[in-house]
Design goal:
Elements (H helix, E strand, L loop, with lengths): L3 H33 L2 H28 L4 H36 L7 H28 L2 H30 L4 H24 L5
Amino acid sequence: MVTKTKLVQQSIRTEIFSTAWMAFEFIVGLTAGLQAGSILLIAFGLDSFLEIIAGSTLIWRLRKEANGASETVIEQAERRSSLVVGTVLLALAIYVTAVSSYNLITRQVASESPMGMAIAIASVILMPVLTWRKRKLGHALASPALVEDGMCNITCAYMAGTVLIGAIVTAWLNWWWADSVAALILVYFIASEGWESFQAGRGKTD
């Protein structure tokens, strides 16, 4: 039987790997988005940056538990993290909506980005694995924050899939509006994740 101490250590290692990947994803996604003029890739990269914040906070929270911190301290850390991340995600949803709408009005066209396609494919493969791992560990530790962070990863997979579809449609069919429309689809995932985190940070549940 795996002890709680080992579960906490496994969770810390999983979060460290996840956060490191998100840092890589942020750099590649944002760089590719700026080079290609793709709001879809830029939004993808910015969402990865927010997940770095969430992952870093969870690492801190798990280390607190590993060092014997009280449940009150751990719960406060989780709520603060959720509130900050939720607020920024909602702001990102507003940003993506505004820029995508502007691009549609002005008929801005995104360029092809092989680098963006590659990172999106990797995320589609990796994110479901991280989701499964975090949910399993989160349930074992009775940590809603760890389970919720796993759901952030599956949202990232949805976003990566949308990036792929948008890029393929833009490249093959030359639909100038595809990138902006696909970015608007991302707003649903970003806003849903943001609202859930915001409510959790305020201590509200359905």
